[in-house]
Amino acid sequence: MLCLTTGYAIAGKWIGAAIAVMTGLAWLPARKYPDSELPFICLVVSVGLAVIGRLTGSPPFLMICGSGFALAVWDLLFLDDTLKSNSFGEQTRRYENKHLQSLALALGCGLIVAFVGRLLNFQIPFIVMMLFIALVIFGLDHIWGIIRKRSLR
């Protein structure tokens, strides 16, 4: 929420900054009650704030980071809620580590793709773009398979 608040403040949109601060405060009870609808509502509001902020001229870097980190926090809240009923053994620890690795990989790749996409501005035919996306997905799947094989050893 700090990214969203800062982005709105830089753009001079003080109402948006105030809403971002209130949403940030709403994440605190969402953390306490992850089985309620509050985490989902906070996620939707956070992503909505990022979209509106981008449309109103807030810095894209902060809006992308704000929405990406909101998604990561939402995912971690549900992971924590799911794992709290399990005994914390070796298998649970491995599952948690794999989940954190996949989350970091997805968040990192998503942020890199978003920032590279902001820097590159050229026209690509749709079919070429679809082939490129398929290649990237295949590559990420292959990388994830290598990570899984190494962690099983």
Radius of gyration over C-alpha positions, nearest whole angstrom:
18 Å
Q: State the helicity in percent bands.
A: over 70%
Low-confidence stretches: none
Largest sheet: none
Overall pLDDT level: 84
Strand content: under 5%
Based on helices, strands and strand pairing, what is the structural class? Answer: mainly alpha
Quaternary form? single chain
Tell me how many strands there are. Answer: 0
Indicate the overall shape. Answer: flat
Summarize the structure.
The chain has 153 residues and is mostly helical. The protein is built from 6 helices and no strands.
Q: Can you walk through the features of this model?
A:
The chain has a domain at 2-90. 84% of the residues lie in helices and 0% in strands. The chain has six helices and no strands. The protein has helices at 2-11, 14-32, 38-55, 60-83, 90-119, 126-152. The model has no long low-confidence stretch (mean pLDDT 84). It is mostly helical.
Which features characterize this protein?
mainly alpha, about 150 residues
Furnish the topology, listing elements before pairings.
Layout: H1 2-11, H2 14-32, H3 38-55, H4 60-83, H5 90-119, H6 126-152
